[in-house]
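Record 1 of the preview.
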Amino acid sequence: MWVILAIILSLAAVGVYWWWRTQTTNTNVVNNANITANNVGNTNTSVTISGPAKYENNVVPFTLDIPSTAIVREQHVSSTTINGIAYPSFTLSLIDSRVSGELTISNRDTGFETEMVLSESHGSIDGRPVRTVLSEGVDALGNSTTIKRWFFSPLNSGTRFESLWISYPVDSVEQTAYFDNVVSRIKLIQDVLTNAATNSPSNTNAVDTSGWKTYTSQSWGLSVKYPADVTVIESTDKTVVEFRGPQQGSNGFLPRWFITHGSNQFYNPPADTDVQSWIKGNTVYDELGDSYSVAQLPTMHVISKASPQSSGADFYYVINGTKLFAIQVRHEAVQDNQPLDLAFLEHIVFNE
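->
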């Protein structure tokens, strides 16, 4: 008797939660349709989609095939401003009667830093490298759970609000298999990627690199293009290469870049080391920078703010095999140099 009553109460609780998740004001339920989020960004609007359907988002951009028994709720929440440019924010929630828990996809940081990280690894979404993290957290009902998170940036502009933050509970084999399968259904919209990259803020003032020279380090397995008026200076121990542009009076040099690969353990981590956790555990920085990928490898972008004693800088840490490289973009001159800085980063190539 008590067992039957407990089962009935559990089913009722699940039903109430399911109803609550699918109810919203101003909601339009669309079956078997293509949903395009070209104009996301309207504050506090949402749409609920019942599978099977193809969801399409042209902000990041990606598509997702929604399973036939799943329901997706997309919510648009205002815009986020980065470097003076407004980017629409969205959160996608997927639930299915066949499995407990909820999968969320967003282009906003989900705040995983407050959770206890259990393990980190690398995966891929539609051929692009992705960082994955298992952590201890809580579900929508406040229960303890193990959460799997994916961090993914389809484009390499460094200024667009275009990363995907994916998370879902993995407390059982069935739950893990189901949500992993849903993530595998994410596909990039290649033509939108191309247009977005062409029209992104990083390329609005196109940099002509046709006359640039090429620096190559055989020992590092690295090459990079740089402007013809930039002087290349190697340290005597061959651990630092400086790219120094023309002097701008008392304001320093423009541009000024450094690539460092030392001989100590920090610059030579074990194989398969996650660059994010390695940098967080071994360096001190002021804040995290926008998402960026050097040479299409997982990259940790951090910012060192200017002080009366030193100029500010962006640091991009990337691991190729067992070699860690620190790429420093120094900000000495007053004028904005972002297009030139990004062009330099985009021409870094690893040859091994």
